[in-house]
Amino acid sequence: MESSSTLFKGIITHNGLWGAIISTIVITLLGFILYRTKVLNDNATISIQKIIINVLLPFLAFYSFLQNAQKENIKTFGVVFGLSAIYYVVLTTIALIWVKYAPKFVPKRVLINAENEHNKIQEKLPLEERKLWNTQSFLEHLQKKHLVNWLMCIYGSNILFATPIVMALYPTGPQLGSLSIWNILYYIGGFGFSFSLLSGVKFTKREFGLTMKKAITNPSFIVVIIAILLWASQFISGAGAKITNIKQNFDVKLIDADGNSFIKTITMTKSATFGPNFSRLYGYIDSDNVLKWFSYDNIKKVYVPYIGKPTGWFDWSTTMPYLYKPISLLTILVSPLIWIVIGTSLGKANIKQIFSNWQNWLFLVYKMILIPLFILCLVLPFVFIKAIDYKTGAILVMTGAVPPGTSIVIYSQHFKVHEKYTAQVSSLSTMLSFIFIPMWLAIGTVILNLV
């Protein structure tokens, strides 16, 4: 176990982490400037969003699983999915109960203050435009405020904000796949269920069907399921990395200490799948008890040292690099385009109002302090029993500190449900996420490493 100080220092000084954060700030600022200078307008932003959602994010979801399947990863992905179910189901259930019953417990002084404020505003209006105070309308208004607060807290923008950090810190390993697994139920809740709640329709059996249809027809959701199945297929005999014992002589090309190449016959004792372009690898254990692998070079027509190791067929970086390359390039486009779109959304905001409203800061406490703390408490026992590693646990904790999900804010704007408020808290959360995301990643890493 690494010391807490070493881990903390390692996280906060990690070049990949700060590279991602600084890149985020710079490109978000670029999007802000492009919108304020009218180089980008709302139509252009909408077009970019469509490309991201319908094209690039599905490629990113697929890319997350392009790796060798290992048994420990099955356990990790299973536990992460279970944790996500607990997180989304429990918090959404609490939210629905809270929203339903909260208006019944509103103190009388709140109603009196609200009525007085209402009357003050009405006095400034022409007589024909004035409206009488209606307690029931106020309670419904307050109920919707609680609803959007809960939805924005529960369904964070994991894909847009957490993904670049994970890719920078853990480009290989189960962390990126775990993030995709965590997001599966987000598609159902953040895109489908939230749509029904904010639209105000009665949640009937028919609405449930429409909600599920909206969620499962999301391109990223479909691709994640397909990618998981293809990734899992590597556990089928012959589809994954498999090593067998042999005894066969091969001519291999080696390089001596002076840089001169020479041919040597070596008795290979291991045969394995898969190497470059689905080729078979051969290896032997040298005098230092190190297993060395060789692959066949089709140009040189001889076996040469291979620096990698056997892998499954779905590890396309090895087996199909010609397909892996364009997918990885499209994946790289996701982050900068997302940051530009976020910058344009900040360009629309009134910065003075955002910082002056105390309710916006209160939301920040809910979203970026209490939610990460809840996830930390949720994952801690599973890290303790080693069901998942502390790095994966810290990534999940970090997702709690991301800004509200874009879909929730969009639905709020579309259905006129406290749209000004959601725009402001989303913008404030976005601006301060650059502090809270690395902070919670470091806190989660240090605490979970100690258990």
TrEMBL record:
The record's InterPro entries line, in alphabetical order, gives:
Mem_transp_PIN-like (IPR004776), Na+/solute_symporter_sf (IPR038770)
What GO biological process, any one, is recorded here?
Answer: transmembrane transport
Q: Does the keyword Ribosomal protein apply?
A: no
Keyword presence, Disulfide bond: no
Q: Where in the cell is it found?
A: Cell membrane
GO CC annotation: plasma membrane
**Annotated Pfam families:** Mem_trans (PF03547)
Instruction: Note the topology in the membrane.
Output: Multi-pass membrane protein
Where would you find the membrane-spanning parts of this chain? 16-35, 47-66, 78-99, 147-172, 184-203, 215-236, 322-342, 363-384, 390-411, 431-450
Keywords attached to this entry = Cell membrane, Membrane, Plasmid, Transmembrane, Transmembrane helix, Transport
**Which family would the database say this protein is a member of?**
Belongs to the auxin efflux carrier (TC 2.A.69) family.
PANTHER family, per this entry? AUXIN EFFLUX CARRIER FAMILY PROTEIN, TRANSPORTER AUXIN EFFLUX CARRIER EC FAMILY
The name this protein goes by in its record: Membrane transport protein
Give the organism, scientific name: Metamycoplasma salivarium (Mycoplasma salivarium)
Its lineage opens with: Bacteria, Bacillati, Mycoplasmatota, Mycoplasmoidales, Metamycoplasmataceae
